[in-house]
Structure to design on (107 residues):
């Protein structure tokens, strides 16, 4: 691995082959250089692409949460979760989720 490291130019690799945190190509792809792994998007399944996208998004969200206060971070995540839950088409479920999402509601 150390022998190949000086030869690796991150700009030659697709985003899908790179680690979302460091931006550097993952070793499993570098090791197989020349075997069409540079175009990872075409080689990955839909599930792998979704996982990769989720990893990148999680790192971005984590970075934003580190800059926020704990209370603001919790509230923001709660708002996102509630919004996703409200996307359900059942009106009764939507009403219920809206009621329980209010942190100041009295039950």
């Amino acid at each position: 691995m150390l022998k190949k490291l000086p030869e690796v130019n991150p700009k030659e690799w697709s985003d899908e082959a790179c680690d979302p945190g460091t931006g550097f190509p993952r070793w499993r792809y570098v090791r197989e250089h020349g075997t069409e792994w540079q175009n990872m998007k075409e080689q990955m399944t839909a599930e792998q692409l979704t996982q990769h996208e989720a990893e990148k998004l999680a790192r971005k969200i984590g970075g934003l949460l580190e800059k926020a206060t704990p209370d603001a971070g919790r509230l923001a995540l709660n708002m996102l979760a509630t919004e996703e839950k409200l996307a359900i088409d059942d009106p009764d479920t939507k009403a219920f989720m809206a009621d329980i999402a209010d942190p100041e509601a009295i039950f």
